Amino acid sequence: MIRTARPTEIEAWWERWPDANVGVVTGWVSAVAVVDVDPRHGGDTKLAALEAKEQPLPPTVTSMTGGGGRHLYFTHPTHLVPSRPIASGVDLKAEGGLVVVPPSRHSSGGTYRWLDGHGPDQLVPAPLPPWLDHLAVALDESRSAGPGATIARTADERALFAALWSDTGIELQPVEFMARCPFHDDHHPSLHIDPDGCRWFCFGCRRGGGIQALRHLVEPDDDDSTPLPAAVPSELSEAPTLRPNVEVEVVGESNHQDALLALTGGRRTWSGAHRRVQARLEPEDDNPFDPQAVAVTIEDNLVGHLPRPAARLYRPIIEESIRNSGVATCRAEIRGGWERAHGDVGRFGVVLRLPRTAGNQ
Ligand SMILES: [Zn+2]
Predict the structure, then answer these.
(1) Which residues have C-beta within 8 Å of that of residue 295, sequence separation ≥ 6?
(2) With CB atoms 3.0 to 4.6 Å apart as the test, which of 118, 124, 163, 264 could cross-link to 273 if both were Cys?
(3) What domain range includes position 168?
(4) How far apart are CA 149 and CA 142, in angstroms?
């Protein structure tokens, strides 16, 4: 059984379902964060070393897992904290995590039980110590910004990010760095900036986010909504020369993110952009990789190409349209390009609506 609950409800479950396997979803939704210590992977010694370096963990609600491990229950802070390993054998279960609670049975045959004197009826869960929260966020950011991570930021966005920081007196460095935060009275560098992913987080005042969050602070007078592109372009009122029956995704769009950013007028917060446009299809006989290639342009910006099989399928139709009408145009939609919390940045994509053919009935 999977349920979400506040820590005080855990005991109530135990009374209601004494034979059930009961779990709690950790994270902001339940206000529970759990430190999972697995001694088989050195979790006991690693956690002791962290406590010696940072601060001992306060007494809190604790269960023995039935497999030899321990679960330490804390109240979750009001902001999002990632779920992730923080040392070998030590996992922080926060956003989107899940733990099994007493009296469930462990796969090894043992039973989860509350540690003597540390049950939810004996102790109130302590707040998650800030050092654990900071460590999880810092580890998470360094992992996702590490080499090989694809961060869907365009050159334009990186330039804007640098310009906004420059307004606060901070000049960006080529790689991630710590700086003194301009948004609170910071005596040590508490501000982590990732220039590549255009992400930032201050461990002092806990402000952070991406470009829009920074803009709110640096240019507070500006309208905070990203400007939408000007009215529907007149060409959309013209019928496309190709009938809109099936969806085909454009490829190579990752090389044209700057153009797509400009066409949509900026990123959106949650599901990203959904801009309906007219696209032009242009045969590229001189394409060095594929003489059958078909380029896709939107408002005179190259945004990608048809996938190879689609190019072969549609070339005859496109060429016929160009002979008859001078152009080959189709309905299209620019999607994606969101910017959410914790550096979750989506790339823009383009979907075309093309005629049904014998090849894609
Ligand atoms: Zn700060």
Answers:
(1) 281, 282, 283, 284, 287, 302, 304, 305
(2) 264
(3) 145-218
(4) 10
* CATH number (domain holding residue 60): 3.30.2250
**Per-residue pLDDT tens digits for 48-80:** 998 998 889 999 999 998 778 999 999 987 777
Beta bridge partner(s), residue 113: 64
* Residues with C-beta atoms within 5 A of ion ligand 1: 181, 183-184, 202, 204-205
For 219-239, how does the pLDDT look when each residue is reduced to its tens digit (9 = 90+)? 766 444 444 444 445 456 678
Rounded-to-integer distance, Cα 18 and Cα 282, Å = 68
What's the CA gap between 289 and 293, in Å, rounded? Answer: 8
Which bin fits 163, alpha (ψ -120 to 50), beta or left (φ > 0)? alpha
Query: Domain count of the chain?
Result: 3
Q: Which helix (H) or strand (E) holds 71?
A: strand 70-75
Q: Tell me the backbone φ, ψ of residue 305, rounded to 5 degrees.
A: -135, 165
Q: How far is the CA of 185 from the centre of ligand 1 (A)?
A: 7
DSSP lists the bridge partners of residue 354 as 246
Q: How many CA atoms lie within 13 A of 259 on its CB side?
A: 17
CA distance 255 to 331: 21
Evaluate if pTM is beyond 0.85.
no
CATH code of the domain covering residue 252: 3.30.70
Distance 179 CA to ligand 1 centre (A): 10
Q: Is 260 in the same domain as 213?
A: no
Residue 311 to residues 252, 296, 354, Cα–Cα distance (Å): 13, 11, 11
How many residues are listed for the chain in this entry?
361
Interatomic CA distance for residues 354 and 248, integer angstroms: 7
d(Cα 83, Cα 92) in Å, to the nearest integer? 5
